[in-house]
Amino acid sequence: MSFSSYTRDDFATSPLMFYYEVTQSCDLVCKHCRASAQACSHPEELNTSQSLALLDQIASFPRKPNLVLTGGDPLKRADIFDLIRHAVASGLQVALTPSATPLATKDALRSAQEAGVRRLGISLDGVDAQTHDAFRGWEGSFDRTIQMMLDARELGLSVQVNTTITRRNLKQIDDLATLLSTLGIAMWSVFFLIPVGRGIDEERISPEQYEEVFERLWLQAGRQPYGVKTTEAPHYRRFVLQRKGDPLAAPSVGQQSARSRTHRAPLGVRDGNGIMFVGHTGEIFPAGFLPLECGRFPQDSVVEAYQTHPTFLALRDANQFSGDCGVCEYRFICGGSRSRAFAVSGDPLAAEPDCTYQPQQVPAIDLEAM
Description:
Number of domains: 1
CATH superfamily: Aldolase class I
Number of helices: 13
Number of strands: 9
Order of helices and strands: EHEHEHEHHEHEHEHHEEHHHH
CATH topology: TIM Barrel
Low-confidence stretches: 31-37, 250-262
CATH class: Alpha Beta
Oligomer: single chain
Largest sheet: 9 strands, mixed
């Protein structure tokens, strides 16, 4: 995906990342599923013509977002390759997040590539089948996941691996990093649990354990041939800056570090600020993990919602945050997970509940200097 042309000046008018949940249908029963996905699609799921109209509207932002077609399992939609082709023809760069089920064959991945998909997002939540399959609710998911990555490598498809950190796999960080180094991936995105959907029943790690995971990720980012980033843990940027590192690149010097910077989102991207999500029945949200409805497509415009809805406007103003996040010198660079703040406190502007850092009561760090 291309991030290099997107700047902080674009935050107010265009999201960098647009997530469209094309269906909630999925054959897995993942323990942390945001969508609480079901075996069958919802009867009010956006149909093909509505989905095509949505794609046209997404492409009309002043700066075209990177589009992620997600679910559920997007391969459960019979028209998924038509949607991909239409999005690409509209000038959008498209990523796909297929579930590791028998639908994710090499032929299916090849069809996605031929339709124009630029990157696959594949989830791996354990270093072994015992851990991963228990998390995913399907025996055989681990083997299918590894095979998908091998198939993608043979096809020349870029892969981002998504790993959700919970107490189940907390001690597997280094082993996962090593395993991924053998699979030719481009990026490892480490998700930190938001207690929504089925994730309410899953135990998230403690704030102190975040710092331990950050330390492991920081070390692995300097060792591995792929990029490392976090999702729903923007305070990792603070951690990196405290170590005088560059949050937009790996801590090592040389070619990999320079290449990583071109594949990283600008500092300050977070729920509602450079990010937007539309659900399978058209609900407009600031993020997939932040279920604050800001309209509904096709009745409402996704462009107008992003640019003018009060919820989006508030989420983009870090000076409106309360508690430690409202006075932290890293608030414009980090800003905390707005989804986790809402899930825990009911207030999307509240302080990040899983951060141990105590603000120093000094002026905010200048983003322009980054």
